[in-house]
Amino acid sequence: MSIFSKKPPKDTMPLNKIKALDKKELRYAALRDPDTYKEIRIGGRGAINIIGNEIQLVCEGVTVFACPLSEVKLGELMSLDGITLKGRDRISGEQRSVTAFYLVDK
After folding, report:
1. How do beta strands 25-32 and 39-43 pair?
2. What is the tens place of the pLDDT at every residue in 2-43?
3. CA distances (Å), 103 to each of 5, 27, 37, 69, 94, in order?
4. 64: exposed, middle or buried (C-beta count within 10 Å: 0-12, 13-18, 19+)?
5. Is 85 in contact with 64 (CB distance < 8 Å)?
6. Residues near 49 by Cβ (< 8 Å), separated by ≥ 6?
7. Cα maximum dimension of the chain
8. pTM here?
9. Number of Cβ within a 10 Å radius of residue 91
10. Fold held by 15-102
């Protein structure tokens, strides 16, 4: 096998890594507008919660995104300071792409 060969990309993190994000604190969450491609901030300080078979982003005490673990597509940002989540949001009923940025102590 060549050192330059690539494995096909996976479309989401493994379930054990997703579950490891439970209770991870967030700086803020932003929604990607599908029409303008601009980010819209949807919440400030919060956390990622895994409740039952669902992943939730809770910001300032309000659930801003919720999707079943079996349906969410989740990947870590290249900068490693957050994640992107894609899936049908239980709150809005719409397909959404949300970016959540970790709270990092400096």
Report:
1. antiparallel
2. 555 555 456 778 888 999 999 999 999 999 887 888 889 999
3. 35, 4, 24, 22, 27
4. buried
5. no
6. 22, 23, 55, 56, 57, 58
7. 50
8. 0.84
9. 14
10. PH-domain like (2.30.29)
